[in-house]
């Protein structure tokens, strides 16, 4: 079995103060993908930066205090790459990938966007460059006899079942028709060729949600969004045996506004 967990930590230093370290120490994952680290290595304690039993690689953003992704692996990676070849996003702290035996695994923090602003333009540029890269990554991996798993905060709810209040969000970033269509392309076997592992194992349920606003009682009412995905190549998806969201028992026990999403594969 191989277990992979992805979580947007909403600031690793803040998460560490709230319980991230204890969570990681108890994790049975073989790989942990982190997003929104929002810190450089020297700003983290030794225990958080290089946790015992893990090989940790980071891709901080050039813009201080923003974005940042990381990969923690039990085995030392064969190779690590930051960015996906698009110069605008090489130092943006939004993508890092590593090669493990038979698997390329990546941590992604896709821009969140905001309708009518430069942030949405940035998101659209990212998406336009990223989909061709993912196709190329899948094809290259297939030629090498490898599988691909891209985990992270994709900042798009694909279907109505992926957010509680979908009717009120039809014109908002994260649920725009063009964003949802982009994910449909990624998941089209004849196009992107990737599989949404959690949805494939839970096809007929709402959620399971992975992000809840800190405002109001969103968490208590489970008024959330499913925007944290494990997207894999088809061969790996066929070996997925379990996928779940590690939802905190209570609002007070949360150490991020996102919950860890875990997928287990029979490999």
TrEMBL record:
Indicate which residues the UniProt annotation says bind Mg(2+).
8, 36, 153, 155, 257-258
Q: Which cofactor does it need?
A: Mg(2+); Mn(2+)
**CDD domains, sorted:** Nape_like_AP-endo (cd10281)
Q: Which PROSITE patterns match?
A: AP_NUCLEASE_F1_4
Q: Which domain of life is it from?
A: Bacteria
The UniProt entry's GO biological process terms, in alphabetical order, are: DNA repair
Endonuclease/exonuclease/phosphatase domain spans which residues?
Answer: 6-258
**Residue(s) at site: Interaction with DNA substrate:** 258
Alphabetic keyword roster: Hydrolase, Magnesium, Manganese, Metal-binding
> Where does the record place the catalytic residues?
109, 153 (proton donor/acceptor), 258 (proton acceptor)
Which residues are tagged with the site Important for catalytic activity? 228
GO terms, molecular function: double-stranded DNA 3'-5' DNA exonuclease activity; metal ion binding
InterPro entries tied to this protein: AP_endonuc_1, Endo/exonu/phosph_ase_sf, Endo/exonuclease/phosphatase, ExoIII-like
Q: Name one Pfam family in it.
A: Exo_endo_phos
Cofactor binding, per record: Probably binds two magnesium or manganese ions per subunit.
Sequence similarity: Belongs to the DNA repair enzymes AP/ExoA family.
Q: Which PANTHER family match?
A: EXODEOXYRIBONUCLEASE III
- NCBIfam families in the cross-refs: exoDNase_III (TIGR00195), xth (TIGR00633)
Q: What is the protein's given name? A: Exodeoxyribonuclease III
Biological source species:
Streptomyces oceani
């Amino acid at each position: 079995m191989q277990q992979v967990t992805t979580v947007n930590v909403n600031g690793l230093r803040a998460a560490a103060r709230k319980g991230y370290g204890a969570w990681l120490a108890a994790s049975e994952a073989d790989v942990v993908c982190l997003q929104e680290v929002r810190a450089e290595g020297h700003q983290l304690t030794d225990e958080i930066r290089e946790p015992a039993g893990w090989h940790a690689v980071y891709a901080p953003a050039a813009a201080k205090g923003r974005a940042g992704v990381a990969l923690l692996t039990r085995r030392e990676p064969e190779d690590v790459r930051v960015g996906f070849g698009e110069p605008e996003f090489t130092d943006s702290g939004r993508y890092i990938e590593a090669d493990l035996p038979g698997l390329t695994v990546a941590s992604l923090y896709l821009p969140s966007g905001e309708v009518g602003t430069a942030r949405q333009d940035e998101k659209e540029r990212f998406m336009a460059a990223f989909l061709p890269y993912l196709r190329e990554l899948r094809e290259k991996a297939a030629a090498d006899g490898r599988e691909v798993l891209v985990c992270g905060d994709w900042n798009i709810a694909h279907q109505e079942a992926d957010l509680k209040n979908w009717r009120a969000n039809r014109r908002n970033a994260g649920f725009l028709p063009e964003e949802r269509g982009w994910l449909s392309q990624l998941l089209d076997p004849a196009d992107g060729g990737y599989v949404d592992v959690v949805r494939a194992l839970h096809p007929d349920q709402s959620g399971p949600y992975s992000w809840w606003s800190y405002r109001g009682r969103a968490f208590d009412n489970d008024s959330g969004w499913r925007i944290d995905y494990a997207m894999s190549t088809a061969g790996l998806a066929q070996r997925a045996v379990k996928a779940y969201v590690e939802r905190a028992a209570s609002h007070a026990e949360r150490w991020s506004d996102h919950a860890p999403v875990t997928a287990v594969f029979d490999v």
